[in-house]
Amino acid sequence: MIPADSFRExxxxxxxxxxKALPPKYFYDARGSRxxxxxxxxxxxxxxxxxxxxxxxxxxxxxxxxxxGSTLIEYGSGESVKSRxxxxxxxxxxxxxxxxxxxxxxxxxxxLQRAFRWLDxxxxxxxxxxxxxxxxxxxxxxxxxxFPGSTIGNLTPQEAHAFLRMTRGQLGPQGAMLVGVDLKKxxxxxxxxxxxxxxxxxAFNLNLLARINRELGADFxxxxxxxxxxxxxxxxxxxxxxxxxxxxxxxxxxxRFAFEAxxxxxxxxxxxxxxxxxxxxxxxxxxxxxxxxLDPKRQFSLHGLVAA
Length: 308
Ligand code: SAH
Ligand code: AVI
Description:
Elements: H1 4-15, H2 30-40, H3 46-57, H4 59-66, E1 71-75, H5 81-90, E2 94-99, H6 102-115, E3 120-121, E4 124-125, E5 143-147, H7 157-171, E6 176-182, H8 187-193, H9 200-216, E7 225-232, E8 237-244, E9 248-252, E10 255-259, E11 264-271, H10 275-284, E12 287-294, E13 300-307
Parallel strand pairs: 1-2, 1-5, 2-3, 2-4, 5-6
Antiparallel strand pairs: 6-13, 7-8, 8-11, 9-10, 12-13
This protein binds S-adenosyl-L-homocysteine (SAH) and N,N-dimethyl-L-histidine.
């Protein structure tokens, strides 16, 4: 379970910073998860299509790398769409999807169970940025951690390093990891992917304020904030912000926060890595980059990592 108090504490702490900020893991309430699923189907949002294409194109080699009959653990499993391809090819002994969004997790697990009746599924509702108890059925083969979607890009490089180190410990010397990582590319393509014409990404970003209003009794007026996303080439990341359109104050429970016109709340980073940059990060966390697969347009990468 995600304690309600941590949400309140994180929101108050984030809005008290000189550059106001909110953790992106809170995007994913039931509506947020549905909006993210809609983003994945947008013309402009290439990462999902690219990763699906590369997974389909290299599924044989990916399955040989990961090995059959393993325990497949997926962090940030969401709809578990890409996992279907992997499950079909790997025929794992068990599948452990982990997600902070209970709604997305339960829906995906029920759908998967209908599609793969022979599969043991242990759905874990939890936050992968904190120590988590993962049910590790004994004698269920090698452990393989799957972390697709470039969700690792939503962590800072320091957080990504800590996450990889933790996973390295969980996997043991025989385990393997498959990580989907969005590549650095033409900034116009990046800009379009986070500024779609239909405004779905804007709705996804603003939904965070709606969630804070509903769950924490806050009074954000959504029309007074605008979605703003841009690529920061010096940091190698997309930054998403919500910009206050006017001088205003907002109450979150007993706390009042003042906004100047033009002041922003930083809601998400989405880091983009070259193949070499990500391999170096994985190496610093105790992994060896053994394989890397790219889609035909070379927009997205899937890294096959083993313990160094
Ligand atoms: N793997 C899917 C979904 C990616 S979206 C894909 O590739 O399309 C990111 C997913 O990670 C969402 O389902 C979200 O609910 C989950 N998530 C984000 N932060 C999380 C955290 N700290 N702990 C657990 N799940 C998290
Ligand atoms: C889940 N994550 C990898 C997405 C991304 O691209 O950073 C979340 C997202 N934010 C805006 N659009 C999609």
